[in-house]
Amino acid sequence: MKPPPPSSPYWKFHRQLARFNKVVFRRTKGRLGGTFAGSPVLLLDHVGRRSGQDRTSPLIYLDDSPNLVIVASKGGVDAHPSWFHNVMAMDSTEVELPGGIRRRVRPRVAEGAERESLWARLVDLYKPYEAYATHTERRIPVVVLEPA
């Protein structure tokens, strides 16, 4: 089973839910919207490569202190999500953690043994990642956000 195309009603609903999550997260400093299905959520700021507009994506994260780890899961069968391309084109950006804590971070993609170790921990944190990986033809990037 392939994920729905990016223009489907599913993805429109997904984008609306993400916008709602961002508003709730920011207004309550993460007391609401700071978790999804029991997993911690951060807000990742990025700039659209084509539009130049500021964007924010709520994403499940793994605290691998001092780093934060996120996964570029829902993009499509053969395409990474737009936030992944946007953030990888930036030298650094900011994330917002529950409590209103903001951190400046530098993104990089984990490779090899580091990726495998982090992937296993991310799947333990949020089981649907494993199922989603079987429905895509791409290797899902694990992104390490290092302190900038």
Automatic annotation (TrEMBL):
Family according to the record: Belongs to the F420H(2)-dependent quinone reductase family.
Domain of life: Bacteria
GO CC annotation: plasma membrane
Source organism of the structure: Actinoalloteichus hymeniacidonis
Spans traversing the lipid bilayer: none
GO molecular function, one term: oxidoreductase activity
InterPro entries per record: F420H2_quin_Rdtase, Split_barrel_FMN-bd
Name of the protein described by the UniProt record: Deazaflavin-dependent oxidoreductase, nitroreductase family
Catalytic activity reported: oxidized coenzyme F420-(gamma-L-Glu)(n) + a quinol + H(+) = reduced coenzyme F420-(gamma-L-Glu)(n) + a quinone
